Amino acid sequence: MTEAPPIHIDALTLAYGTHRVLDGLTLSVPAGSITALLGGNGAGKSTTLAALLGFAKAQSGTIAVCGVDPGRQPDLARKRIAYLPENVALYEHLTAVENADYLLALSGERQSKAAITDALAAAGLQDRAWDQRLGGFSKGMRQKVAIAVALLRQVPVLLLDEPTSGLDPRATADFNALVSAVRDRGTAVLMVTHDLLSAADVADSIAFLEGGRVAEAVPASGPDRFDIRALHARFQVGADRLAA
Ligand SMILES: Nc1ncnc2c1ncn2[C@@H]1O[C@H](COP(=O)(O)OP(=O)(O)OP(=O)(O)O)[C@@H](O)[C@H]1O
């Protein structure tokens, strides 16, 4: 029996009231790969993530996380997903270790302090920050704590919503390296972004959302690698540095 793909969406239609946002969306993300999802403002990128998390309900089509329909079994689907919203929500008055411990306890997946500090180290958080409260942490440091929790949960799916917006180039490169390492452990990563250059650096394929569906999906490496200037010219998204 073949295993269900981590993320599988087929001909999905989703509307908020009379406003149809997704209109025949088809997208699959295999294990051990990163897909970047680009598109203009309001194209439906975050809505796609919300549908995978079971927070937005589709009207028709298929959506599955490791074979689980998040519309019908949201709790089961969320157990397979680590989700990083644009601004990661953590507890300011708890330390990095305490945050990881508490979040793991909430999902019923508690682990030892040694396992937590190993994961924080793997996520690139310096050891002097492990026992500091999060109040003074930068966005990049918070993401490292959240990624460490994702590593510890060993979930097959990682969803990222504009993870590098507001990060400087060094922190963006660090984050992309970390996401690549997560991918190399076999995780399927779907990353919503406006940054075409960053997507080109880290993703295996890039999907452009337009009119509620994937207007174009292209490999980000190999001989058929896309022409970044042609894509920028066509979709006018991200890569402001190219337009300069
Ligand atoms: N909960 C909601 N109720 C009603 N309309 C919504 C809701 N969430 C999103 N929308 C609308 O659905 C459309 C798609 O929004 P979505 O946030 O998915 O787009 P996006 O591609 O992520 O955009 P951006 O790049 O601006 O973040 C927008 O027109 C938005 O106003």
UniProtKB/TrEMBL annotation:
Residues 7-236 form the ABC transporter domain. CDD domains: ABC_DR_subfamily_A (cd03230). One of its GO terms (molecular function) is ATP hydrolysis activity. Gene3D superfamilies: P-loop containing nucleotide triphosphate hydrolases. This is ATP-binding cassette domain-containing protein. It comes from the Bacteria. Keywords: ATP-binding, Nucleotide-binding, Transport. PROSITE patterns: ABC_TRANSPORTER_1, ABC_TRANSPORTER_2. The keyword Hydrolase does not apply. InterPro entries: AAA+_ATPase (IPR003593), ABC_transporter-like_ATP-bd (IPR003439), ABC_transporter-like_CS (IPR017871), ABC_Transporter_VariousFunc (IPR051782), P-loop_NTPase (IPR027417). It holds the Pfam family ABC_tran.
